[in-house]
């Protein structure tokens, strides 16, 4: 007789390929709804997997293999991002890094809204940033997440928590932050002017960061992934490269547009090593610290036209 009990999946981790390991332990709890529920990921019990005869005295049995979880694309991307965030915790950062901000944890509510609202289908184009800035994603949980653009144009808001260890001059105040991230404002205002509304941008594109954590020294200076040395850099690149491959496959990305040269180079390395056919392009980074970047919106628009991508972002 087929069991009609609730199955609670017990796995050590969800790998970046989004598949669940074989031989996962499953605990059966009395419930008329036969589902597996792990981190809000649900699928129906297969009648051949769970039977009363397969349970031992403790109610624990081993499933030989579990089919892919039929969750939507947004949830799959969030699982991938959370898996990467967890893997990056394995890296022990040394001097000069004194602070590590993980907005996928303390700003997950808003980040999850972003993914669910704007990433529910395959994306032809993936804009790729480097990692969170102190006044952007570190505050809102959104890549290049300048507070006003996130709230007023993307129409996202919510509760933002605090990092485990906070730098006194880089405090996270969420949507109460009075500082404007110029890079984020420039990026999103460009596509606001081109697209009119966010739906026109996200119809073909999505914005994603290569690395989801922010690194700072004791004084609050931002330390980019490119500045890391030795084992720290090797480990971080390894984890983030694997996650990027998984994201490309998941979203069926045809073109990656690196925002700046770092993102472009990492994408080139990842695509080549994974044997993917994804095209790699770049636009200049909108940072005000970049030389000759005063008219960034004009330069970026010209660059999109040269890449034959401007057509995807017209109203």
From TrEMBL:
Gene3D superfamilies: Uracil-DNA glycosylase-like domain. The keyword DNA damage applies. Its main location: nucleus. CDD domains: UDG-F3_SMUG1-like. SUPFAM superfamilies: Uracil-DNA glycosylase-like. Residues 117-295 form the Uracil-DNA glycosylase-like domain. Keywords: DNA damage, DNA repair, DNA-binding, Hydrolase, Nucleus. It is found in: Nucleus. This is Single-strand selective monofunctional uracil DNA glycosylase. It comes from Cephus cinctus. The lineage of its organism: Eukaryota, Metazoa, Ecdysozoa, Arthropoda, Hexapoda.
């Amino acid at each position: 007789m087929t069991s009609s009990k609730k199955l609670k999946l017990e796995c050590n981790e969800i790998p970046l390929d989004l598949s669940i390991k074989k031989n996962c332990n499953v605990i059966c709890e009395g419930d008329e709804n036969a589902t597996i529920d792990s981190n809000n990921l649900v699928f129906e019990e297969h009648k051949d997997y769970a039977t009363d005869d397969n349970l031992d005295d403790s109610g624990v049995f081993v499933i030989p293999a579990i089919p892919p979880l039929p969750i939507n694309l947004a949830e799959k991307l969030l699982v991938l991002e959370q898996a990467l965030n967890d893997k990056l915790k394995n890296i022990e950062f040394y001097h000069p890094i004194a602070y590590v901000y993980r907005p996928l944890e303390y700003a997950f509510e808003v980040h999850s809204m972003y993914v669910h609202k704007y990433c529910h289908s395959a994306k032809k184009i993936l804009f790729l940033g480097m990692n969170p800035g102190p006044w952007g994603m570190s505050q809102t949980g959104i890549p290049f997440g300048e507070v006003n653009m996130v709230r007023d144009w993307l129409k996202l808001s919510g509760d933002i928590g605090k990092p485990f260890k906070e730098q006194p001059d880089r405090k996270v105040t969420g949507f109460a932050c009075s500082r404007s991230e110029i890079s984020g404002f420039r990026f999103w205002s460009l596509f606001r002017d081109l697209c009119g509304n966010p739906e026109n941008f996200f119809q073909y594109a999505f914005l994603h960061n290569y690395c989801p954590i922010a690194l700072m020294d004791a004084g609050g200076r931002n330390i980019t992934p490119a500045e890391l040395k030795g084992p720290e850099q090797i480990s971080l690149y390894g984890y983030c490269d694997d996650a990027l491959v998984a994201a490309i496959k998941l979203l069926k990305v045809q073109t990656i547009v690196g925002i700046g040269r770092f993102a472009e180079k990492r994408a080139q390395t990842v695509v080549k090593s994974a044997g993917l056919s994804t095209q790699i392009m770049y636009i200049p980074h909108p940072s005000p610290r970049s030389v000759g970047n005063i008219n960034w919106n004009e330069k970026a628009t010209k660059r999109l036209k040269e890449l034959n991508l401007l057509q995807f972002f017209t109203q």
